[in-house]
Amino acid sequence: MAAVAEAASPAQLARSIETYVADHPAAAILEDGRVLFDMRTARYSVEEQHGRCLLQLWSEERNLIRTVVEVQQRAQCLRLMTRRMGAPRPQALELVPASDRRTPTARQTARRNYQRLLERVLTRSFIGSKVDGLRSAMDLEHSFGPAYVRGRLLQGTAAQAVIGVSQAESSAMVDGILSLGILWLDYCRQRGEHRRHFGTLKVIVPADAWRTTAERMAWLNHAAADFQLFTLDERSEELVAVDFRDTGNLESRLVHAFSADTVIERCRDGIDRLLALVPPAGRERVEVRPNSSSEVGLRLHGLEFARVRHGVASHSFARQSEISFGAGANETPLLPENEKLCRDLCARLFLSRHSDGMHTDPLFRLQPERWLESRLRAGIAELFPGLRGDLLYSQVPALSVGDRGLLDLLTLDRNGRLTIIELKAGEDLHLPLQALDYWIRVRALNADRQPAAGIAGGRPLSAFERQGYFPGAEVAPLDPRLVLAAPALRIHPANEPVLRYLSPQVEWELVALSEHWRSELKAVFRKRSG
Questions:
Q1: Matching CATH number, 104-242, of 3.40.1350, 1.10.3470, 3.40.50, 1.10.8
Q2: Beta strands in 418-464 (DSSP E)
Q3: Sequence-distant (≥ 6) Cβ neighbours of residue 104 within 8 angstroms
């Protein structure tokens, strides 16, 4: 098929993307063949801004902002040529009909071939050790899926746990290997023969996908096991050891903090216009939360249903507010002729989304993590009396590294120590190591201490303080605390075993909340490191 003309306008580029997603509801965004976003669960916005086509994608795991410069139509997909801020060359993203384009038979065949390849490579690379029991069969009882090949290396009474993942799997599968590797090591220790000691875990990832696993592995408890990381080039069958203790500088980027009160005041006219369309009895339930220095979102229990953007008007230097309602592809500018539609949608939303709502109602079930976050923001003083609820940052955008996700909540305790709060409303096997990603970056940003600009002889300030976070407070130069919170029956059974393998330097707390957290937020039990 012919490619979209290179001179296509930003509006035409946006329409091409929106049309494709509307025609393919199970579409996925790929980069270098790996899935970044499954459009069935991700949210997106694509629009013309200042003469550019701006594509924004976000999910519970990551976010991405790119300028689309060209859209090329292929047989079954769209190839998006995009620019990341500061990148010298365009980067290609693929918009495909489904996240895994392989048939079940092809997927199963590829995994069997990888298992045979891994056995061959291990036998050749570790002479003197016997490769034993390689498998990739599903074992739901112990959380093992078919994407990972796991087995043992035996040598006398010594034994090593081994786990590998193929380059044909999604990036999320590859990044999740360390969680499964820890569980496999733990399983081998508990179920193995008593005469064998499993002192080592070997983790094998594709040649170009080691960084996330390396960063996480550096912060495991190395007194508990000898963790080893390898890359495997499946074409050359070359196995290479990775020094995970030297992964280079973290590319954390911290956006300057903005004044929430200033943004709200700037968008006041638009906020008042939207509130007038909300049912009068529900107006006090609306959360007005700034998303950036120029945008405010209106939310009901964490679900954003409208927004006000304050910017420069077209063909003018005058500033005006742009008001919209809905989300993603359904975001609609608010005009006099569709005010009734907005009013009706708000009435439907407020009728459905309340603590005693019907669990079968889609509007009740949408974005449970954001609902839990809004409850925690309101009740943080009762649940965590040692934390400062007055200095609480939600969905911190600066901590996304490249295309990494957003941190849920960041605050200080009464002694000025940074505290990260990561929330889950449903089971997530990978919660501990995803939260560890944020801990690593918050720690690095806090350790980046420099003298305050223009103030001689003052104490060195962390990157947070230099960028305007926690005004009036002193951020202590201590490693941050990590808090994981989820409803008690939604905490994945694998979370605690993984947490036990974290470095003693990572001080964590697991908080189990009551199942009726929408109406009553309280802790059922707490578990702490050490």
A1: 3.40.1350
A2: 418-423, 450-451, 460-461
A3: none
Q: Which residues contact 509 (CB under 8 A, 6 or more apart)?
A: 481, 482, 483, 484, 526, 527, 528, 529
Q: Sheet harboring 34-38: ordered strands across?
A: 34-38, 28-31, 91-96, 78-83, 63-73, 52-58, 43-49
Q: The tokens 């305790």 sit on which residue?
A: 413
Cβ pair 144, 122 in contact under 8 A: no
Output DSSP code: residue 255: P
Domain ranges of the chain: 10-96, 104-242, 260-361, 368-528
CA 339 – CA 154 distance, rounded (Å) = 70
Q: Is 192 exposed, middle or buried, given 0-12, 13-18 or 19+ CB atoms closer than 10 A?
A: middle
Q: Do domains 104-242 and 368-528 have the same CATH topology?
A: yes
Is there a contact between 441 and 469 (Cβ–Cβ < 8 Å)? no
Determine the topology of domain 368-528 in CATH.
Trna Endonuclease; Chain: A, domain 1 (3.40.1350)
Secondary structure letter of residue 462 according to DSSP? -
Instruction: State pLDDT tens for residues 218-254.
Output: 999 999 999 999 999 999 999 999 998 876 666 666 7
**pLDDT, position 252:** 66
Inter-CA distances, 397 with 58, 68, 171, 400, 406, Å: 11, 21, 22, 6, 6
Give CA–CA dist 381/526, Å, rounded.
16
Structure tokens at 30: 């790929």
> Does the pTM exceed 0.85?
no
Instruction: Supply the DSSP string of 322-343, one letter for each residue.
Output: EEEES-GGG-EE--GGGHHHHH
Burial class (CB in 10 A: 0-12, 13-18, 19+), 454: exposed
Residue 509 reports pLDDT greater than 80:
yes
Angle at 90 between CA 25 and CA 404, to 5 degrees: 60
* Residue labelled with tokens 């959380």: 143
Q: What is the distance between the alpha carbons of residues 280 and 211, in angstroms, rounded to a whole number?
A: 51
Looking up tokens 């594509």 gives: 55
